[in-house]
Design goal:
Helix content is about 50%, strand content about 5%. It has about 425 residues and is mainly alpha-helical. The chain has 3 domains: about 110 residues, no CATH class; about 80 residues; about 170 residues, hpI Integrase, Chain A (Orthogonal Bundle), CATH 1.10.443.10. Belongs to the 'phage' integrase family.
Length: about 425
Amino acid sequence: MPSINRILRNEYDFEYVFEYDLKKQKQYGGPTIYDGGGDLNRRWYVYYSFRNPETGKLERQPPIYADLDNYNTVKERLLRARALCKSVKLILEEGFNPYTPEPDNSILSGQSDKEPVNINSAKKVAEAIDFALAYAKNLHSESSYNDFKSRITRFRDWLVDSKPATAKMNEIESIDAIGFLNDILQRTSPRNRNNTRAALSSLYKILKNNQIVKENIIEGIDILKSSPKKNKTYTKQQEEDILKLMAEKDKHLLLFVKFISINMLRPVEVCRLQKKDIHIIDKILKVRAKNQPVKTKIIPDILLQDIPDLTPFKNTDFIFTPNGVGEWDAKEVNRRNHFGKRFKIIKDELGLGEEYGLYSFRHTYITRIYRELRKELTPFESKSRLMLITGHSTMDALEKYLRDIDAELPDDYSYLIKG
């Protein structure tokens, strides 16, 4: 029987098998993110190991810091680190070897005087935009992301149809974006065109931060003057007619409107309310708002008495569903549209046009409260009190809002006209 030692002594066979097995071994480990335990004061980086051709062992390579420290929140820094990690992995898969200092290795080794090749800059249009959409999903609320995705998807499809299949995202010029925005303007309105421009600018910010493009080409494109369609405030008679009709035909919608009117919530904020957000004993509610993650507001006694008994329901049950308090597996935008359609039935019966909507109740009650405050207080004192009620984050924002809804009216100036 042949001896295994005798076989191993055959140097040629042994070296052949060794080299063969080494090639089969994975040449690198990672890449991996070091996040300092989530501490933003520590330096984050991506690291990887590579097999030393002399020892055959995986050895840790120098860390890659890139621009991770430029991001000031854990969420943003982690997203950037993941993107960097993915790029490093792609480079390694393409055959990068830190032990072979060739020009192709300049990306990670830094041993070339030439400008490093950035693998992200090679992304084609559809690939780059799909990457940005996935990135943005973690940064936006559901409703704002859906709007962003809709606008950006149209831009992607427009570019794919008008550009060669090989076109890269960093080859797109501002004239291309202008052409797309002009098409939006011709088909819709200046306001929609401006909103699309804002979405494109956000897209390019993501692309630039991830080194897919060198600059935000949208920043140099002008914003067009537009006249946004406003929700009018209701007259006293209109308000009485609407409230009376809702009390007769849709009491659940009436309660929905009271949260807008009395608690000064936006319609979408009312749709977000769950049992866990309503604290009856403390007379407060907590809601995810437009200008802050969680907003706490008091529940005035005039509204508190209309809230049904929530004891039998789960904490995650929504206050407003098609059939009252309960579960509702629907997207936020669909929940908002549901109550908008229910209200349209009411206002159509009263012959009110599209310039009136659920938002009109918020305008109406804020105007009413402000004018009552002005009877005894100065404009500044009135606005300071009103800010606590409306939830506006700054005085400038509140003042702009009051101007938009014509809340401030002059006293009767007849005496100035009489001779």
